[in-house]
Design a protein that fits this description.
Pfam families: FliX (PF10768). The structure is a single chain. The chain is mostly helical and 141 residues long. The chain has a domain at 62-139. It has four helices and two strands; from the N terminus they run ββαααα. The chain has helices at 35-58, 62-88, 94-105, 114-139; strands at residues 2-3, 9-10. A two-stranded antiparallel sheet has the order 1-2. The radius of gyration is 30 Å and the shape is elongated. It starts with a strand and ends with a helix.
Amino acid sequence: MKVTGPAGPVTGSAPRASRPAPGFSVASGSAPTGPAATASASTLSGVAGLSSLVALQGVDDVAERRRRAIRRGGGLLDRLDELKLAMLSGEAGEGALDRLSRTLREVRDDAADEGLKALLDQIDLRAAVELAKAEVRRNAP
């Protein structure tokens, strides 16, 4: 089935003949007819469609920001676990430190929930402390 426009779905290969629907009539009166009516209608719908799209793109709902904040916090906790496992196995964990640093530098969305914001602050602080400790170990004589 193929949708070709306002006529709706078309099945088969034969084109549909355009016939007015039964009971349909155009009211005659003060409404403009012809190209002027078409131009004004298309202009209005184009502007309305564009402004609607721009408005939808600008909407950043609370649930989406919360989801991104939780995903970032979970990623930081995963990187901290990688670092812990690398250090317990006796490795320097340079790869884990690089990934932790990159994840920490990601843009953080402000969560509307104060509890979540406080938790994410603690995770960020712990990651920053681990990076600072690694820097001290690198610079030690």
